[in-house]
């Protein structure tokens, strides 16, 4: 008898759909209305991110999670090369479409301007508010840094371009 009751309870629990959690901004939900960084705050984060004079490993106050040792080495190498190439750093950042998102996050679109050779296409970034301080996610910082490196080195191999 106990096994029949247990089977009925199990069958009933499987047939009842689980309720899904909806976040702000999801279809049918109100738009997110949490805090967002200012354009100046995002530009400052991007300027720090691309500063070749500050080791990437020490940028944990602007990137979350911080860069791994391998990422930091690669980033530092690229930023130093861009700096040595001349005229590429600091880039002029264009920040648009800052919007609130769930869980103390915000999204923005970032590009660089400066003509054909120094401009990047707009890329989305995600920022996290930690104790009133905005940080860019590692996951979205890496593509922005990669885009800057591709602008700096439009030809391959780098040795043919006179960069290394």
Description:
- The model is unreliable at 1-19 and 155-164 (pLDDT under 50).
- The chain has a single domain, classed as Nuclear Transport Factor 2, Chain: A.
- 20% of the residues are buried.
- A hairpin with a 2-residue loop joins strand 4 (123-130) and strand 5.
- It contains four helices and five strands; from the N terminus they run H-H-E-H-E-E-E-E-H.
- Helices cover 35% and strands 21% of the residues.
- The chain is of the alpha+beta class.
- Strands 1-5-4-3-2 form a five-stranded mixed beta sheet.
Q: Which class in CATH terms?
A: Alpha Beta
Mean pLDDT: 80
Unreliable runs: 1-19, 155-164
How many domains? The number is 1
The CATH architecture name reads Roll
* CATH topology description: Nuclear Transport Factor 2, Chain: A
Kindly provide the radius of gyration, computed on alpha-carbon positions and rounded to a whole number of angstroms: 22 Å
The coarse overall form would be: globular
TL;DR?
The chain has 164 residues and is α+β, with helices and mostly antiparallel strands. 35% of the residues lie in helices and 21% in strands.
Per-chain topology:
Blueprint: H1 2-15, H2 39-49, E1 63-64, H3 69-85, E2 92-101, E3 105-113, E4 123-130, E5 133-137, H4 138-152
Parallel strand pairs: 1-5
Antiparallel strand pairs: 2-3, 3-4, 4-5
Primary descriptors:
164 residues; alpha+beta; Nuclear Transport Factor 2, Chain: A; 35% helix; globular; disordered C terminus
